[in-house]
Amino acid sequence: MRENTPLTIYGETFSNRLLIGSALYPSPKIMQESIVAAGSEIVTVSLRRQNSVAAGEDFWQLIKDTGLTVLPNTAGCHSVKEVVTLAKMCREVFVTDWIKLELIGDEYNLQPDPIALLEATEILLNDGFKVLPYCTDDLVLCQRLAALGCEVLMPWGAPIGTGKGLLNPYNLKTIRERLPDMTLIVDAGLGLPSHACQALEMGYDAVLLNSAIAGAGCPVSMAKAFSHAVSAGRSAYLAQAMPEKEVAAPSTPTMGMPFWHQ
Amino acid sequence: MMGKPKVAILGFGLVGRVAALMLHEKCHVSVYEASDEHASSSAGALAAAMLAPLAESVICETDLAELGLKSMAMWPSLLAKLPEPVFFQQMGTLIVAHAQDKGDLNSFSQRLKPLKGQEAQVLNSAYINELEPELAGRFHQGLYLPCEGQLDNLAFYRSSFAYLQKSDVQFNFNHQIELLTTPSEPVLIDGQQFDWVIDCRGLGAQNESADLRGVRGEVARVHAPEVELNRPVRLMHPRYPIYIAPKPNNEFVIGATEIESQDNGPITVRSTLELLSAAYTVHSGFSEARVIAINAGLRPAFSDNRPRVEHCGNVIRINGLYRHGYLLAPALVSEALSKGLL
């Protein structure tokens, strides 16, 4: 049995391992109910599409009303300059030095730009931010981000909003094995609770998702389902799964067969 | 014998106009509007004026979609009174998606709620071409929602004012009214006594309604002589539905965005690009279209995005129609007024 340590994000600890987004719900009320059903302690918020700081206040108030830890993100930014400016605005509005750094390199599949991401991460870390970079599942990129001083990394499962699940489990496992002490959160691309479960079984510390819940027929029930899946995945990780084998091994010895054949 | 009741209608946006049309024969109606007769910042003045109960059933509850169907049936008689004909069409909606957004179209189609025998038809390219010959070859799959329609909101605004002006409705423009939370009876508005007050101020009532918020929408109106569409076309978009709604004289309303913001400042470049490029990808004839207007405004919405009718003594508050103003107004207003007035 592995030791159960809490989810740690830049020194702060959390017991829930499902981080939830605040976009695309049918209504703000359903958003609030879904967040409660998910049991999340951390909710991400985007500042980009609010036009001006004052204009989005009512919506942000709804999020602040949930009483959860707010993780602002830089969704919709395409350049280092844009993310740095937006990160500073987020720090003012939400009074937090946490920033989920999203820097898009490809407009269509919203794939993060790994090169610009490194540059922006360095600038923001030097400015005192606690950066949670959203990145692709590339080991070397993750190592570089770690070397800059990130204490949390958020590789994708699949492109944002696709719901395809963990497209490259091998890459994600490698990152987990090679960065054993890093807080790792699978961010984006999950569609089903089983995808979240799989990430946690692999030893990922948490998952972050939005569309899979907000876009479900009944977001509140789906939030609950994800909450169960995350618990199941974490328990399985702690319990240490049996090793995979290539040939069948009967769980009950077969009577009447020489023991060396059993 | 009692005389006609005196009714004050606060707000001359879509809901205020519908209420005035329903009440003016039976009551002495006075209208109070914070801006002028165009109420040009009201959501109804900017909307694409879609009547899309089936498509909206994807995001709203069945009872609202059904209220939408009821409203559809009420619009023709409401418009028939008006002197200037108002364009009203019920030829269905065509829904299409670019290849990359096929997944969105599939999930949209799965989420359509069953609605009193109203069904969506799945289309192949041949059928799309039959409905909209100018879209031939551009889309290979789509949906047709035959029960849906639209109207021309600007013509409705113009015509309803012209008609009501000729009746004995009293207009008070540039007149902002604050309403007490627990009004006296009879209600005093601007020093005058009224038997009933119909509060249709939308976001004008925000100070008195804690969870009323504005949801920003941006919309373009273009004149495109090279484009012929028979009915509104809805293009799947990852963040909000974009309608291209043909109005008379080759005018098209393209919109609207939907952003959780109370900013009613001018449209952003990004939204402009999204709306206009969406239209262009549906029909290249939009490249030579003239942009007549491009506007941003706020939709009044409560936190559950459902409309609310409140009866407080002789004050009836109707608000929070969100993106469903034209879809819901006739049936919602008539239900609201039926308790005591109609």
UniProtKB/TrEMBL annotation, chain A:
Known catalytic reactions: [ThiS sulfur-carrier protein]-C-terminal-Gly-aminoethanethioate + 2-iminoacetate + 1-deoxy-D-xylulose 5-phosphate = [ThiS sulfur-carrier protein]-C-terminal Gly-Gly + 2-[(2R,5Z)-2-carboxy-4-methylthiazol-5(2H)-ylidene]ethyl phosphate + 2 H2O + H(+)
UniProt feature coiled coil, ranges: none
Domain Thiazole synthase ThiG: 8-253
The enzyme's E.C. designation: 2.8.1.10
Principal subcellular localisation of the protein: cytoplasm
Active site, renumbered: K100
Binding residues annotated for 1-deoxy-D-xylulose 5-phosphate, in chain numbering: G161, A188, G189, N210, S211
Stated role: Catalyzes the rearrangement of 1-deoxy-D-xylulose 5-phosphate (DXP) to produce the thiazole phosphate moiety of thiamine. Sulfur is provided by the thiocarboxylate moiety of the carrier protein ThiS. In vitro, sulfur can be provided by H(2)S.
The family this protein is said to belong to: Belongs to the ThiG family.
Quaternary data: Homotetramer. Forms heterodimers with either ThiH or ThiS.
Protein's recorded name: Thiazole synthase
Species this chain originates from: Pseudoalteromonas aurantia 208
Gene name tied to this protein: thiG
